[in-house]
Amino acid sequence: MSKLRSLWMVIFLGSVCAVAQQQVGNDRNLEEERKGSYLSLSGKIGSSGLIYKLHSPEEKGSRSNKSGYGFDLTYSYFFNNHWGISTGVGISHYASVGKLKGSITDKRYYNLGMLVDNDYDGRPKDFNLRARLSNLVEKQTTLFLDVPVMLTYQTRFGEEEKWGIYGSIGAKLQFPFSTRFKIRNGQNSEFNVSGFYVNIPEDLDMGAPSNPPVPQHGYGTITNPNSSLGWNDKGKLKMGVAGTAELGFIIGLGKETDLMIGGYVDYGLTNLKKSNKGLFTAPKVYHPHADNKVGYGIKYNGMLNSDVTNKVKPVSFGGKIGIRFKL
Asked: DSSP label at 298?
């Protein structure tokens, strides 16, 4: 009887060992299948904008982000069935809106510097060119070329491991290759230009809101300035570095094809601002002979290119979906 028990014990242990060896073999096969190179194509959508603080004479403005989107081509290499590294190239669209309420009053103005008036009774006079603005709404849009480097983790579960989760963390270089700003048109927006003269016969801010307009010198107030002065233009930003992370689900579509669904976040780590000049730049000669054209010749530089903003950083988060292929 004891010999029979021993025989059964040997058979049982042998079966366990065989199953264990088979399982180890299957795990090794799965690991061999999961490791290697992958290529993925994905699209993303969410909130993507430029973060900055906005201020002008005696005022703090407001800023908001708009929806953004992007597309990524990613190459990944997994050293085993869990850990790998990823890199690639992508294009991201960012959009923000900056608002300055402003005010058309004598005391609040942008100082555009000193110029010389050669048309004041034939006697040259120095004057300070000033600009005032109310209800400025500017939309900024930027396209970035992204180059990420990320550490990636994945794990599979379920029948034939058709399901899984993944996560990635790292950094990306962001190259802005198209930045533009556009002013919202509207009759509520006003633009005033004046010239401050000393001792003519007393200190005079010619064309200021409290004084009569002098259109022959280009002084006075106009409404909806963007429609007549065409302030929409290109902006400039520097290359930056952003931290980036992703988290999501893996759905197996085939032996070597996966559907990837998840979320992402990108946060700028460096200041992209390239210029810190004034919001307006005066021409070398503003008048004489302005021909009743208030504001003509004065360049509007945009919020991102001027001293009304401080640091400019991109921030984006949202959802992402893509297809991944094993190479």
From this structure: P
218's CB contacts (< 8 A; 6+ apart) are 193, 207, 286, 287, 290, 292, 293, 294, 295, 296, 297
Which residue ranges make up each domain of the chain? 1-34, 36-326
DSSP-assigned states of every residue in 10-71:
HHHHHHHHHHHHHHHHHHHHHHHHHSEEEEEEEEEEEEEEEE--BEETTEE-EEEEEEEEEE
* Neighbour-count burial for 139-158, b at 16+ CB within 10 Å, e otherwise: bbbbebebebebebebebee
Mean pLDDT of 279-299: 80
What is the predicted pLDDT for the residue at 15? 42
Average pLDDT, the chain: 87
Residue 265 forms beta bridges with which residues?
245, 317
Check whether 82 has a pLDDT greater than 90.
yes
CATH class of 36-326: mainly beta
pLDDT at 201: 65
Is the peptide bond preceding residue 176 cis, with omega within 30 degrees of 0? no
Phi, psi dihedral angles at 217 (to 5 degrees): -105, 5
Residue 136, SS3 per DSSP: strand
Determine the Cα–Cα distance for residues 246 and 266; give it in Å rounded to an integer. 9
Residues making up the chain, counted from first to last: 327
